[in-house]
Amino acid sequence: MNSCSISKKSCSHNKVSFDNEILKLADDSFKKVETLRKDAEFQTLVSELQNKSTTLNTEQHTDKLSLGELYIFVSFSMGEKALLNLAREAKLFGATLILRGFKERSYKKTAQALQKIIEKTGQGFLIDPELYKLFYIESVPSFILTEPFNLSSQERFSTPIHDRLRGHVSIRYALETFAKSGDFQEKANFIIKRGEER
Fold first, then answer.
1. What mean pLDDT comes out for the span 86-91?
2. What architecture does CATH give domain 54-197?
3. How far apart are CA 109 and CA 115, in angstroms?
4. Could you give the 3-state DSSP secondary structure of residue 130?
5. Which of 42, 67, 123, 144 is the most buried (most CB within 10 A)?
6. pTM for this structure?
């Protein structure tokens, strides 16, 4: 039974209280972001990362849209060397590296942790906890090859058909495994060939 039908007055009061709490949280978040934006050290880090990271060109973007998406779910717990190796390969094969969240819930610490990797490889990272939920990622690294789908969380209704491999292996090994026995063998072979030609 819906508790709101018992006492509309109480329910209305709870809603107002909840709305006020949401507004307070939003205001606090806004203040934290504004403080961070005024931090000179943080601005320098962001500027350096933006200057040194590269964006996908039109040809690469078209490939990814037409041939499926290769995602590698990673974590800071893997260590810098493992992340660096995967970032180099991700750049080569046009893969996307995905983190669940910020390092120690800090924008600044996250930027500092990724700075060296991005400088050395030119490979960026996507931070998206919802993708972890969408593909039921429980351990890292996890490799996912799937059809293109809308990254907007509002339009994700079900987990796309995909190939999956878990474990500390190279991206090439994961792709070769998908090419032998996955649902997207042709896509995996194409990505391998494209990487070899770069």
1. 97
2. 3-Layer(aba) Sandwich (3.40)
3. 10
4. helix
5. 144
6. 0.66
